[in-house]
Design goal:
Keywords: 4Fe-4S, Cytoplasm, Iron, Iron-sulfur, Metal-binding, Oxidoreductase, Pyruvate, S-adenosyl-L-methionine. The structure is a single chain. This protein is α/β, with parallel strands linked by helices. Helices cover about 35% and strands about 20% of the residues. An eight-stranded mixed beta sheet has the order 3-1-2-4-5-6-7-8. Strand 4, helix 3 and strand 5 form a beta-alpha-beta unit. It binds iron/sulfur cluster.
């Protein structure tokens, strides 16, 4: 039995996939995104140790609220970093007929990733940036992993919700949305595209952790502008 490391749990999550969901934030992330809200989830091996059955017990408490669309979402951190555990946990949840989504960042891929993607009912895929250099500037990772994930998603014909954080002065332009529309064309089964406006609510968390917040001069994303950009999305 593989053990996992858990950062935290959100019950009644309403923004990480369809319906009401129990969100398991797995510990550990190889990326260092400029705007990360959860820098405390980065450290590998921190958090609490769990087994798949612990997560099943927690998730079963939410069954009366999941309805037809809800279920469990694995987020992070980067869930694929614990691929072997993720596969075991999803299989155990699916035995209880609980729908499982994975919220992944495209910044990590290993020998377990294909099967983890295969087991998931829905993939929430964060694009970070369409341009490889900008992708690396934002995440400190190489975009190759994102393409490996897209290849698997297409091969396995998985349903996908695309997520894209829009950050003033980095990707808040109509040209960027055009490039995103082009980028998305290579992904087969896209059900939804969500543009998420950058905000800086994590600054105090960074201060408490004694860490440097690298976007402190960037203002939160303007709502009207985000709406306008949203109207340009095509998929
Ligand atoms: S991938 Fe997610 S958890 Fe990891 S650094 Fe980026 S925003 Fe944070």
């Amino acid at each position: 039995m593989v053990k996992g490391r858990l950062h935290s749990i959100e019950t009644f999550g309403a923004v990480d996939g369809p319906g009401i969901r129990t969100v398991f934030f797995l510990q550990g992330c190889p990326a260092r995104c400029l705007y990360c809200h959860n820098p405390d989830s980065w450290k590998i091996g921190a958090g609490s140790e769990v087994e798949a059955e612990d997560l099943v017990k927690r998730a079963k408490r939410g069954i009366p609220y999941y309805g037809d669309d809800g279920g469990v979402t694995f987020s992070g951190g980067e869930p694929l970093l614990q691929g072997e555990f993720l596969i075991e946990a999803i299989k155990a949840l699916k035995k209880e007929n609980i729908n499982c989504a994975i919220d992944i960042s495209g910044t990590y891929y290993d020998e377990f990733s294909h099967e983890a993607i295969n087991q998931a009912d829905l993939i929430l895929l964060d694009i970070k940036h369409t341009n490889p250099r900008e992708f690396t500037k934002i995440t400190s990772r190489n975009q190759e992993t994102l393409f490996k994930i897209i290849k698997d998603i297409n091969e396995l014909d998985k349903k996908v919700w695309i997520r894209q954080v829009i950050i003033p002065s980095i990707n808040d332009t109509e040209e960027y949305i055009e490039s995103l529309n082009e980028f998305i064309k290579q992904i087969g089964n896209v059900e939804k595209v969500e543009l998420l406006g950058y905000h800086n609510m994590a600054i105090s968390k960074y201060e408490k952790l004694g860490m440097d917040y690298r976007l402190k001069d960037v203002k939160p994303m303007d709502k009207d502008k985000l709406e306008k950009l949203n109207s340009l999305i095509k998929y």
